[in-house]
Amino acid sequence: MSFLAALAPAAIGALGGAAGNAVGSAAMQGLNSADEAFQMGLYAQQMQHQEQMSVQSTMFDEAMDERSENMRQINTLRDVEMTQRKEDNAVTKKFIQSIGE
Asked: 3-state class of 72 per DSSP?
């Protein structure tokens, strides 16, 4: 009986250690799962922000393209106006010359 009494604490300790390791392993797996879920959440949030930035960038590019086209049209109209003024001035000069003759 003394032999069993001597083995009992060791057996209980081994069983307790195995149970403790199982609990520790399960806790570690739980933490790993929670961390993985958190990382996936961060990744999804980052992807959402990148998509929003892409949409904003596209909208900005389209607005700048439209503004550039408007500026080109305005410059073309100014060029036409200047050409018309030059021609008008030439006609006015010829008219003035014809009066003076």
From this structure: helix
Q: Measure Cα distances from 69 to 72, 79, 80 in Å.
A: 5, 15, 17
Instruction: Extract the tokens encoding 53.
Output: 């930035």
pLDDT in tens, the chain (101 residues): 455 555 555 555 555 555 557 777 888 998 999 999 999 999 999 999 999 999 999 999 999 999 999 999 999 999 999 999 999 999 999 999 888 77
* pTM score of the predicted model: 0.52
Transcribe 18-64 into DSSP letters.
HHHHHHHHHHHHHHHHHHHHHHHHHHHHHHHHHHHHHHHHHHHHHHH
Tokens describing residue 42: 């961060």
Q: Which two tokens stand for residue 20?
A: 């403790």
Tokens for 89, please give them.
Answer: 């001035």
Handedness of CA 30, 33, 39, 43 (dihedral sign): negative
